[in-house]
Design brief:
Layout: E1 2-4, H1 8-15, H2 20-31, E2 39-45, E3 56-61, H3 66-84, E4 98-104, E5 119-121, E6 130-138, H4 141-150, H5 160-175, H6 185-193, E7 198-206, E8 211-215, E9 224-227, E10 231-235, H7 238-245, E11 253-254, E12 259-263, E13 269-273, H8 285-290, H9 296-308, H10 310-315, E14 324-328, H11 334-346, E15 354-355, E16 359-361, H12 372-378, E17 383-385, E18 396-401, H13 408-419, E19 425-430, H14 452-463, H15 467-481, H16 491-496, H17 500-511, E20 519-524, H18 527-533, H19 541-544, H20 550-564
Parallel strand pairs: 14-15, 14-18, 18-19, 19-20
Antiparallel strand pairs: 1-4, 1-10, 2-3, 2-4, 5-6, 6-7, 7-8, 8-12, 9-10, 9-11, 12-13, 16-17
Helix pairs in contact: 2-7, 4-5, 5-6, 9-11, 14-17, 15-20
Length: about 575
């Protein structure tokens, strides 16, 4: 979200363009552009728009390269205006003072432009026209849907984005005064967000020029902001703001959890506590995987993850470092790989350290493929391999990855590919611990069938003749969902029946493809070690089962019931 705080003439005079805000928003989006995003959207609001002209404009794309398609389309509109209708430029909403952009990473639900942000709640009254975008997952959409029904609304969707927009709109209508003036936005947000269970960073712009950014009280989703006399900007990643405005890290502030940053019609900015304080549980998976590694803190944390894996990796090198080759799975694991190398070099092993890029990602393939069948088929061909680096039958090949979730890519593509190099042994090292519990706040994995760690622990139960434990915990989950037992985590006792090493070995057995010639070992980060690497991000429920909101415990109970009943869908 970007707000220009001076009049348009200032930017035209200083930067020689009517599109200073749009250019900066485009750069912000480019710098948050990441693999797997399947949609993009941009909206603009023109302040003091002449009646009879639209106060806002919204453009979206869900094509193959959505951001490029979107920027190209808008660029074409701008060129036509400049050449054929230059007199219309002052009225063009995307040349306005308030802009909102979003890149969609959809892992569940509908696809297409209708699912792309921003969402809009239109009205002929500018102060009731709201455009909203955000990063969020709510666990209690059914309750919010029913709440809206009870207040006389007819929601056309049960998607959390639509429900958030409707509920904020409902609270806004209730707070409007008879004089039809803008009400207290913080009070409106507080009333609406008190009903949310989950993780969210929301940005909204009103047709009359007011705007807000709101972060959940647990701080699960990230948000950063920067304000000077020319702009106020909010983004989900700090480096995007740094690059767009040429700033040092300390100049960009973190939006405090539970706080709202509001902007009035005159560009005045205020930071207010909006939600009651809760334990801070910032999502650590943002640090491991989602966010770009060029953030100063994230870069150091990812290097620390690679360093922490070294002792367990060395235990798997029976033939010594001199007969080992170190590499990584592109792209997010590269920084952890650097941390591993630095740690090995500091150990002064007096042995030659051999390393390089063995796995090469084929740029023609998308990393994220929504359809499960297509994903499994395509994963066989996502990577190419570098020949001539591994000594056949002699070397142990150590490959670090950022995480192992389903295990499909490792099983179907990475291990068969690496085995073609004929190493004596392959060691797969995961910078993240095993993902044992469903996530409903960001990664959006509500099905236990998707987690190789859970399938592995079920294997252990079967081998040890303890499947009765699974049945007991499912019965407990059913009772909890009906309100007949405390809402706790039923999976902890299942995982607690086995040691960490036993679980890792069971995962390794599942990862091993038929016909693999090399020996195979798997090394995982421990949750305790990860906390040392990322001390300020304790949101690790997918590794520990320690959920930050009640909705998380409902999800884990429902996920276990779904698993036993062969309901292969997410649990919320």
């Amino acid at each position: 979200m970007l707000r220009l705080r001076k009049k348009p003439e200032h930017y035209l005079c200083k930067y020689n363009t009517e599109f200073y805000g749009y250019q900066k928003l485009s750069l912000l989006l480019e710098k948050q552009h990441n693999r797997g995003q399947d949609g993009a959207g941009i909206a603009g609001v023109k302040l003091h728009q002449e009646p009879g002209r639209p106060a806002f404009q919204m453009e979206k794309s869900a094509r193959k390269m959505p951001l490029a398609n979107l920027l190209e389309r808008i660029g074409g509109q701008i060129e036509i205006l400049k050449k054929e209708h230059p007199e219309q430029l002052p009225y063009y909403p995307l040349a306005g003072e308030l802009l909102l952009g979003h890149l969609r990473y959809g892992t569940f639900g509908i696809q297409g432009e209708a699912a792309c942000h921003p969402f809009v709640r239109e009205s002929t009254c500018l102060n009731r026209t709201l455009l909203m975008a955000g990063n969020f997952n709510l666990t209690n959409t059914i309750e919010i849907f029913n709440q809206l029904l009870e207040t006389g609304h007819h929601p056309s969707s049960k998607q959390d984005g639509a429900l958030i927009l409707h509920l904020i709109g409902h609270c806004l209508e209730q707070a409007m005064t008879k004089q039809n003036k803008q009400t207290d936005i913080v009070a409106v947000l507080k009333r609406a967000a008190e009903s949310f269970d989950g993780a969210f960073t929301l940005c909204g712009i009103f047709g009359d020029g007011h705007a807000f950014a709101l972060r959940d009280a647990n701080g699960i989703r990230p948000a950063f902001y920067y304000v000077n006399d020319e702009v106020a900007v909010v983004a989900s990643e700090r480096p995007a703001i740094q690059t767009a405005f040429d700033l040092f890290p300390e100049q960009v502030q973190e939006l405090p959890p539970g706080h709202a940053l509001t902007i009035d019609q005159d560009g005045g900015v205020e930071l207010s506590e909006c939600l009651a304080p809760k334990p801070i549980r910032k999502c650590v998976f943002e640090r491991i995987y989602f966010s770009r590694g060029n953030d100063a803190d994230i870069h150091q944390e990812r290097k620390a993850m690679g360093c922490a894996l070294v002792p367990d990796v060395l235990k798997n090198l029976a033939d010594g470092v001199e007969n080992a080759f170190f590499s990584y799975i592109p792209n997010t694991a590269q920084i952890s790989f650097h941390g591993m190398l630095e740690a090995l070099m500091k150990m002064q092993l007096n042995k030659p350290l051999r390393f390089g890029q063995v796995a090469v990602k084929d740029a023609k393939f998308r990393t994220f493929i929504a359809d499960a069948v297509a994903r499994e088929d395509f994963s066989m061909h996502v990577y190419d391999v570098t020949y001539g680096l591994i000594r056949p039958g002699l070397d142990t090949l150590v490959v670090i990855d950022d995480s192992i979730v389903r295990g499909n890519t490792v099983h179907n593509a990475i291990l068969p590919m690496l085995d073609r190099l004929s190493p004596k042994k392959i060691v797969i090292a995961s910078a993240a611990p095993p993902i044992c519990y469903p996530d409903c706040y960001g990664i959006d994995m509500g099905s236990l069938k998707e987690l190789i760690a859970f399938e592995a622990v079920v294997d252990l139960l079967k081998k040890s003749g303890r499947t009765d434990l699974l049945e007991r915990q499912v019965a407990q989950a059913r009772a909890a969902l009906k309100g007949k037992a405390p809402l706790t985590d039923p999976l902890r006792e299942i995982y607690g029946a086995f040691s960490f090493d036993e679980l890792v070995q069971a995962i390794a057995e599942r990862l091993r493809p038929t016909g693999l010639k090399a020996e195979l070992a798997v090394v995982f980060q421990t949750p305790a070690s990860l906390r040392k690497c990322c001390p300020n991000h304790t949101g690790d429920w997918y590794f520990t089962g320690d959920y930050p909101t009640p909705g998380g415990y409902r999800v884990v109970n429902q996920a276990l019931v779904n698993y036993l009943e062969h309901v292969n869908t997410r649990a919320y």
